[in-house]
Amino acid sequence: MAFLVGGDRLNGKSGTHRAADGKNSGFSEIYFVNTYALHKKVAVITVFQKKAQRTLWAGGGLKNRAACGFSLVELLVVVAMIGLMASFALTGFKDIGASRGVGQAASDVKGILELARSEAVTKQTFVWAAFREATNSGILEIQMALAGSADGTANAAGTNLVPISRVVHAKNVGLANASTLRATASVTYTDLFELLGNTSGITYTNLSQSRFTNTTITFTPRGEAMAKGSPLATHGFTPLIGIGIVPSRGDQKDPQPKSDSAVVLDGSTGMSTIVRCK
Fold first, then answer.
1. For the chain, what is the domain count?
2. Is the pLDDT of residue 4 over 70?
3. Cα(60)–Cα(50) distance, integer angstroms
4. Between 20 and 30 A from 137 (CA), which of 19, 58, 238, 261?
């Protein structure tokens, strides 16, 4: 193809020119060139071919039309790189989500313990904080609720228990022994009682028919806490009670969690502390 520019010299004047194939009677391709931009060594040639517009050349010089696209190999490499980066990002988002879920669950546990102590001291009665694992729509969760004594005594019979709170659901987490977690690896506890090992708690069924068995903590009118479900006057507080929290995948606990938390309850004061994995 012969490239002509309207018979004019490219002298830096701004304007629009066109060129045609001298071998044909009509224009098969029409090139519009900004001669002022070409004089500045920066130009764009727009090709109108069969009524389809495309850019053939931009700055620096004319290029082979075949070099204006991408080969199949180049496209496959780009797609593979995008997929690899997406997989890394997805893994990171999952880890962040699991860590956030464990942290929120620890806050919920601490909150329910603080409410139990407050109710026991304010109303001068016994209050039980109950915990359990349950599967809800294929997702493992920790459920927690509070019950109080109707007559103010340590009588934990079902007829003497009144609900204080609704059931709180902490999703995508499960209970664990606090002493086995990464969060407590750098901390040494003496006389730590694991909530999961409690066999002397109460059995409590709330209004929604959620049944809690043994994994309960008793708060006394003095604000002390103990694992014993129906304490006598001779029973003292439990020095430390540990509640471990780990993330779950579906209805199973994560066997190798990258994040976990523990709530450690001081039985002498009824105050709790969250220990997070660093």
1. 2
2. no
3. 26
4. 261
User: What 8-state DSSP symbol labels residue 190?
Assistant: S
CATH number at residue 162: 3.55.40.10
| Residue 150 CB-half CA count within 13 A | 8
> Which tokens hold the place of 51?
């009524």
Quick check: is 91 in a domain? no
Residue 150, C-beta contacts closer than 8 angstroms, at least 6 positions apart = 160, 161, 162
In terms of residue numbers, what domain contains 79? 1-85
- Whether residue 261 sits in one domain with residue 212: yes
- Alpha carbon separation from 181 to 30, 227, 255, 276 (Å, rounded): 74, 21, 12, 10
Q: What is the pLDDT of residues 69-109, one digit of tens each?
A: 778 888 888 888 888 777 766 655 555 555 678 999 999 99
Query: Among 59, 85, 111, which residue terminates a domain?
Result: 85
Return the DSSP state at 254. -
For the stretch 139-168, pLDDT in tens is 999 999 999 999 999 999 999 999 999 999
Element containing residue 183 per DSSP (H, E):
none
The model's confidence at residue 24, banded by pLDDT at 50, 70 and 90, is very low
| Domain-ending residue, one of 85, 110, 135 | 85
Mean pLDDT in residue range 252-263: 89
SS3 211: strand
